[in-house]
Design brief:
Length: 139
């Protein structure tokens, strides 16, 4: 399945509703995300060398950029692929993308509650699939 205009609308709406440009919400979202990721996959924690608040800010900043530029294929692919190359240098392995994707979907479900509809889940699953395959250099 490919991203549709409906998917794009849903990811933009859910992301911007969940994380308005608010540093406190960024830290909250990142904190919930990393706590989930590290509780499910503690072996990933040594890959992160920055304070949690800074890492949360980086995560949200990059997600915001991806959400805002996903409909610009060339720009999106170049930036996200470069991000994937940097992550290789940090020790990220292909299987880590699935683990991160699971944590991301979980935190979206937990924080959005009933607003995380089946259609929103599908949109985010497709979106993260595109992000992961682009970071791996497969898209």
């Amino acid at each position: 399945m490919a991203l549709t205009s409906s998917h794009l609308q849903l990811i933009r709406q859910t992301f911007h509703d969940l994380i308005p440009q608010d540093p406190e919400m960024e830290v909250f979202f990142g904190d919930v995300f990393y706590r989930r990721l590290f509780s499910q996959h503690p072996e990933l924690q040594p890959l992160f060398h920055t304070q949690l608040a800074e890492q949360a800010h980086r995560l949200v900043t990059m997600l915001r950029w991806m959400v805002d530029h996903i409909s610009e294929p060339a720009t999106f692919a170049a930036q996200v692929h470069a991000l994937g190359e940097r992550h290789l240098k940090y020790g990220v392995k292909p299987e880590h993308y699935d683990q991160v994707g699971e944590a991301l979907i979980w935190v979206l479900q937990e924080t959005l509650g009933e607003d995380f509809t089946p259609a929103a889940r599908e949109a985010w699953t497709e979106t993260f699939g595109l992000i992961a395959s682009t970071m791996r250099g497969l898209a």
